[in-house]
Design a protein that fits this description.
Chains: A alpha+beta (about 350), B mainly alpha (about 300), C mainly alpha (about 270)
Number of strands of chain A: 19
Oligomer: heterotrimer
CATH superfamily of chain B: MetI-like
Shape of chain B: globular
CATH architecture of chain B: Orthogonal Bundle
Distance between the termini of chain A: 47 Å
Strand order of the largest sheet of chain A: 6-7-8-3-9-10
Strand content of chain A: 25-35%
Number of helices of chain A: 8
C-alpha cells in the first residue's frame, strides 16, 4: 500500500496535560505521556473516558489547561492551533468536503500550503494510487461508499507529509467486515510509513490489532499503558481487567501455600489472606472430572470456534469458561474445573 | 468571553462530558479552542449586520416608543388601546379575526396536508405545487384575489346571481378580509404540516394499527398529537400575520375596522403621530409575543412569516 | 404509506381539490381579466394585450424601481446576512440566541410599525427620505431574517464544525476555511435565501406604502393604486405582470425545496 512513501518519525510528548471544560467538568486529569517516533499508540476506553479529549489536545483542537505542554519532537506546539502544527487527522465522520471532488479533497492541504497546481495534482494522484482509489479521483464525495471515504480521508491526511497522524475512531462508521479488512490495511500502512500515529477507539479488538502500545483510559485518567499483551495478561487494575476481554473474578482464601477456591484447593505462592483471584475463560480447563472445583453447566453459547460455558460451583461461584467449539455440553451437566496457578492473577492493592 | 453552555464534544461518540446540553442543530464537535479563537474575525463578520440593524431597527423602534409617549396624552397613549373604546373595539375585532383565521386555516391545511402526505396518486405533485404557489403573494395581491372571487365583478357574485337571482358580494368587509387572510395563510401552514408529517416515524402508526386502532383513531391518537409543535408554530405565524397585515385590508376597503387600518388612519388622516406610534408599538409587541410564546412551547424555531 | 382508497380517500381528495380551486381560480381569473377586452362582458369580448400595454405606459417606472430595490436588497442581505448567519451558527450561547431573536423581529413586528419607526427617526433627513434608499432600508430589515434563517438552517444541517476542523487540520486558516469550506457548502441556503429575498422585496407593501413618495413608487404601491383607481382589467394586467416577474423565482424555490428533500432523507 505504500511504495517509496516514507515519513519522519517524530516523537510526541504530553506534559501535565489536563482539561477542564466549561462548568468545571474535568474531562482529563493531568497526563504525562511519551510517544516514541514511529510508534502507533492507541487510546482505548469507554465513552467519556477522556480519550478523544486527549487526541484533540494532541491535535491542537483543544488547548490543555494552564501548565500543560505538548511537544512534537523538540518543538513546544502547545500554543499553535491545529492549522500550524502540520498534522494529518482522520475524523470519525471523515469530514470530507462535499463541495470538492475526491482529488480536490486530497489536494486541499497542498492548496492551502501554496503548492503549485501541477505539483499538487501529481502528489494527490500519487497518494490516491497508493490507497488504490486512483479511479475515484473525479468523483463527488456523496458518490463514495464508506470504505472509499475512509481511504480518501487517509489519503488527504497523509499527502501533506504530516509530522503526526491522528485518527479519531476512523472505523466506527463502517460495518464489521469492512472494519476488519481496513484495520489490517491501516496496520500495514502505518508500519510502512513509519509515521508516529495516535489512534482513538472504543473497540478493544482494534486496539489490540493496531497498537504498539495501548493507553487504557477511564474517567479522565490513564488506567494502564502497555503493549497489547501486557494489557491483556497483566491488567493493572480492576477496571482494565473488566474492560479488556472477559475476566472471572473469584473470591478466595490463601494460607499456608494453599489457595482455597470454594471447596477446591490448589498450591499457591501469591499474596496471603482473603484475596480476589482473576482468571481468563481460556485459562480454565473444563473436564468431566479430576479438576479442582466441581460445577454444573448453567448455560452454553456456541460461538463457532469455541463454546462459551457458564458454570456454577456448588458454593455459588459463577465462572465463564471457554471450551473447544465441538464440545457437546448441555445445561445441568456436571463438570470439573481445573486451574493453573501460574495463570491466576491478583491485582495489586 | 462567556463560553456557550451547549458545547458537547462529539456526541456521536457518546462522550458525555456535559449533563444534558441543549442541542442545537449539529454544531457539536466544536472544539473550544476553535470556538474561543477568532473572536476578532467573528466580530468583524457580525459587525455590518449589527450596525445596520441597530441604526435602522433598534434605534427607530426606541424612538417610536418615546414618540408614542410624547403626544397630548403623554404615556397614557399606551393605555389608550384598552381605554379608548374605538381602539379597544378595533383591537378586539382584530384579535377575533386573527383567531378565527388561524382556526380555519389550521383545520383546512391539516386535512389537505395530511392527505397529500399520506397518499400517493398521479397529479399529487401538481396539487402540492398549486397549493404552495401563492406563498409569496403580497397582501395587496391577496386583496385583489378576494375581489376576483367575491367582489362586485367576482365569481361568487356571478354564480349566486345565476343560481338565486341575487348577487353575493362580501369582498369589501370583514368577511372578505377573513377570506383573504385564510387564502394567504393556507400555503404556509400546509407546508409546515406536510414537512412535519413527513418526518413522523411510521412505526408509531404501525404500532397503533397492530394494537387494533382504526384509521380515525390512528389520526386522533398518534398523528395529530405528534403534529402539535407544527400546529403551534404554524398557528402562531398565522395569527401574527393576520394581526399585523395591512395590504389586504388596504386593498379591500379602508373602512374595515382592524388595528393596522386604525393606525394608518391615525397617522395619515388625523396626523396623530403619537397615537399611531403607541398603537403600532403595542401591536408589534403583541405579535412578537405571540410568536415568541409559540416558539417556546413548540421548542423548535418558529420560522419567520412573510 | 398506502391506504385503501375508500370513501374517506375520495372525500379528502375532493376537499383538497376545492382548497386548490380556492387558491388557483382567482389567479387564473385575474390573469384572464388582464387580457380580456371587457371583463364585464366576458371572454367573448375578445383577447387583447392593450391593458398590458397600458400598464407598461402607466407603471413602467414602478417595475424598474422594484427590480432595482430587489437586487440592491439582495446585495445588502448577502453582505450582511451570510456572515451574520455564520457567526450565529458558531456561537451557541444566550447572547447569540438573543441576537438571532432580535434579527428576526422585523418579520414578527408588523411592517406598519417598522415603517413608522423609520419615518419618525429618519423622516427629517429630506434627501434620504425622498430617495429610494429609504425604501431599501425597510426592505433590508424585512428580508434579512429570511437570508439569515435560510443559511443558518443549512449550517445546522451540515456539521460544518467538523468540516472546518478537517480544513484546519490540513492547515487552513480562518479566511481559507470560510471561503473554501463554509461558503461553498451553504450555497443551497444562500440560493434559497436569495430567491426568497428577491420575491419578498418585489412584493413588499406593508412597509413600502408608508415609506414611498410620489417619486419612489414601487410595483406593489402601483398595484394598490391601480386596484383603487383603475378599471379591473388594468389592475388584472398589472397583477399579471407582477406574476410573470415573481414566478421564475417561485418555481426555482420549489425545485430547490424538492431537491433538498430526498437528499436529507438519505
Amino acid at each position: 500500500m505504500s511504495g517509496s512513501f516514507h515519513l519522519d518519525a517524530v516523537p510526541v510528548r504530553l506534559r501535565r496535560c489536563a482539561k477542564t471544560f466549561h462548568g468545571g467538568v474535568r474531562a482529563l486529569e493531568p497526563l504525562d505521556l511519551d510517544i516514541r517516533g514511529g510508534e502507533t499508540v492507541v487510546f482505548l476506553g469507554p465513552s467519556g473516558c477522556g480519550k478523544t479529549t486527549t487526541l484533540r489536545i494532541l491535535a491542537g483542537l483543544e488547548r490543555p489547561d494552564e501548565g500543560g505542554r505538548v511537544f512534537y519532537g523538540e518543538d513546544d506546539v502547545t500554543a499553535l492551533p491545529i492549522e500550524r502544527r502540520n498534522v494529518g487527522m482522520v475524523f470519525q465522520s471523515y469530514a470530507l468536503f462535499p463541495n470538492m471532488s475526491v482529488a480536490e479533497n486530497v489536494a486541499y492541504g497542498l492548496r492551502v500550503r501554496g503548492v503549485p497546481k501541477a505539483e499538487r495534482r501529481e502528489r494527490a494522484e500519487e497518494m490516491l494510487a497508493m490507497m488504490h482509489i486512483a479511479d475515484l479521483a473525479g468523483r463527488r464525495i456523496d458518490q463514495l461508499s464508506g470504505g472509499q471515504r475512509q481511504r480518501v480521508a487517509l489519503a488527504r491526511a497523509l499527502v501533506v507529509r504530516p509530522r503526526v497522524l491522528l485518527l479519531d475512531e476512523p472505523l466506527t462508521a463502517l460495518d464489521a467486515k469492512l472494519r476488519d479488512s481496513l484495520r489490517l490495511e491501516i496496520d500495514r500502512l502505518l508500519r510502512a510509513l513509519g509515521i508516529t500515529a495516535i489512534y482513538v477507539t472504543h473497540d478493544q479488538a482494534e486496539a489490540m490489532a493496531l497498537g504498539d502500545r495501548i493507553v487504557v483510559m477511564s474517567k479522565g485518567r490513564v488506567a494502564q499503558v502497555g503493549t497489547p499483551r501486557e494489557i491483556y495478561h497483566r491488567p493493572a487494575d480492576a477496571f482494565v481487567a473488566d474492560f479488556i476481554g472477559t475476566m472471572n473474578r473469584l473470591p478466595a482464601v490463601a494460607q499456608d501455600g494453599r489457595l482455597l477456591l470454594g471447596r477446591g484447593e490448589l498450591p499457591w505462592s501469591g499474596p496471603q489472606g482473603r484475596i480476589e483471584v482473576l482468571v481468563r475463560p481460556e485459562d480454565v480447563a473444563l473436564t468431566a472430572s479430576g479438576g479442582h472445583v466441581d460445577a454444573r453447566i448453567a448455560a452454553t453459547v456456541f460461538l463457532g470456534d469455541r463454546t462459551r460455558v457458564v458454570a456454577e460451583t456448588a458454593d455459588g461461584l459463577t465462572l465463564t469458561v471457554d471450551a473447544p467449539g465441538r464440545t457437546d455440553l448441555a445445561r445441568g451437566d456436571a463438570v470439573s474445573l481445573g486451574f493453573d496457578p501460574a495463570r491466576l492473577l491478583t491485582l495489586p492493592e | 468571553m462567556a463560553l456557550p453552555p451547549s458545547q458537547p464534544p462529539p456526541a456521536s461518540q457518546g462522550e458525555a462530558f456535559f449533563p444534558s446540553p441543549a442541542k442545537r442543530g449539529r454544531g457539536q464537535g466544536w472544539g473550544q479552542v476553535l470556538l474561543r479563537r477568532d473572536p476578532l474575525p467573528l466580530a468583524a463578520l457580525m459587525a455590518p449586520a449589527a450596525v445596520v440593524f441597530g441604526a435602522f431597527f433598534l434605534l427607530p423602534m426606541a424612538r417610536l416608543f418615546v414618540i408614542g409617549g410624547s403626544g397630548a396624552e403623554g404615556w397614557a397613549a399606551y393605555a389608550s388601546i384598552l381605554l379608548n373604546p374605538r381602539h379597544l373595539q378595533s383591537l378586539v375585532s382584530t384579535v377575533l379575526l386573527s383567531a378565527g383565521v388561524t382556526a380555519v386555516t389550521l383545520a383546512v391545511s391539516t386535512v389537505t396536508g395530511l392527505f397529500l402526505v399520506r397518499h400517493r396518486f398521479p397529479g399529487r405533485s401538481v396539487l402540492v405545487a398549486m397549493l404552495t404557489f401563492p406563498l409569496a403573494f403580497p397582501g395587496v395581491v391577496i386583496g385583489f384575489m378576494v375581489i376576483m372571487l367575491a367582489g362586485r365583478q367576482g365569481l361568487i357574485g356571478d354564480v349566486t346571481q345565476a343560481l338565486t337571482g341575487s348577487k353575493l358580494v362580501f369582498a369589501y368587509s370583514m368577511a372578505g378580509l377573513f377570506l383573504g387572510y385564510v387564502y394567504f395563510s393556507i400555503p404556509r401552514v400546509i407546508l409546515t404540516v406536510m414537512a412535519s408529517a413527513e418526518k413522523l416515524d411510521p412505526s408509531h402508526e404501525e404500532a397503533a394499527r397492530s394494537l387494533g386502532a382504526r384509521p380515525w383513531q390512528v389520526v386522533a391518537h398518534v398523528i395529530l398529537p405528534a403534529l402539535k409543535p407544527a400546529f403551534l408554530s404554524a398557528g402562531a405565524i398565522c395569527f401574527a400575520t393576520a394581526m399585523g397585515a395591512f395590504g389586504t385590508a388596504f386593498t379591500l376597503a379602508t373602512r374595515i375596522d382592524v388595528l393596522p387600518m386604525t393606525i394608518y388612519t391615525e397617522f395619515t388622516l388625523q396626523a396623530n403621530i403619537a397615537t399611531a406610534a403607541a398603537l403600532s408599538f403595542v401591536l408589534g409587541a403583541v405579535t412578537w409575543a405571540a410568536l415568541a410564546t409559540a416558539r417556546s412551547f413548540a421548542g423548535s424555531s418558529v420560522a419567520a412569516a412573510g | 404509506m398506502t391506504h385503501r382508497r375508500g370513501p374517506a380517500f375520495w372525500a379528502q381528495l375532493t376537499f383538497t381539490l376545492l382548497v386548490c380551486a380556492l387558491l388557483v381560480v382567482p389567479v387564473v381569473l385575474s390573469m384572464l381579466a388582464g387580457v380580456t377586452v371587457n371583463y364585464f362582458v366576458g371572454i367573448k369580448s375578445g383577447l387583447t394585450l392593450k391593458w398590458v400595454d397600458e400598464v407598461w405606459r402607466l407603471y413602467a417606472e414602478t417595475i424598474g424601481l422594484s427590480m432595482q430595490i430587489a437586487f440592491a436588497c439582495l446585495a445588502c442581505t448577502l453582505l450582511l446576512g451570510v456572515p451574520a448567519a455564520y457567526v450565529l451558527a458558531r456561537k451557541q450561547g444566550a447572547v447569540a440566541r438573543a441576537i438571532e431573536e432580535l434579527l428576526v423581529m422585523p418579520v414578527a413586528v408588523p411592517g406598519l410599525a417598522t415603517a413608522l419607526a423609520l419615518i419618525v427617526t429618519y423622516g427629517g433627513f429630506g434627501d434620504f427620505r425622498r430617495s429610494w434608499l429609504f425604501i431599501l432600508a425597510g426592505h433590508v430589515l424585512f428580508t434579512l431574517p429570511f437570508m439569515v434563517r435560510s443559511v443558518l438552517a443549512v449550517l445546522h444541517s451540515i456539521d460544518f464544525a467538523t468540516l472546518e476542523e478537517g480544513a484546519a487540520s490540513l492547515g487552513a486558516g480562518f479566511i481559507q476555511r470560510f471561503v473554501h469550506v463554509v461558503l461553498p457548502n451553504c450555497l443551497s441556503g444562500i440560493l434559497a435565501g436569495s430567491l426568497m429575498v428577491l420575491t419578498l422585496s418585489m412584493g413588499e407593501f406593508n412597509l413600502t406604502w408608508l415609506l414611498h413618495t410620489p417619486l419612489t413608487k414601487t410595483l406593489p404601491v402601483g398595484l394598490a393604486d391601480s386596484y383603487a383607481s383603475m378599471r379591473l382589467e388594468i389592475g388584472s394586467a398589472y397583477t399579471l405582470v407582477f406574476f410573470v416577474m415573481i414566478v421564475p423565482s417561485l418555481i426555482l424555490l420549489q425545485i430547490l425545496a424538492g431537491r433538498g428533500r430526498p437528499r436529507s432523507e438519505q
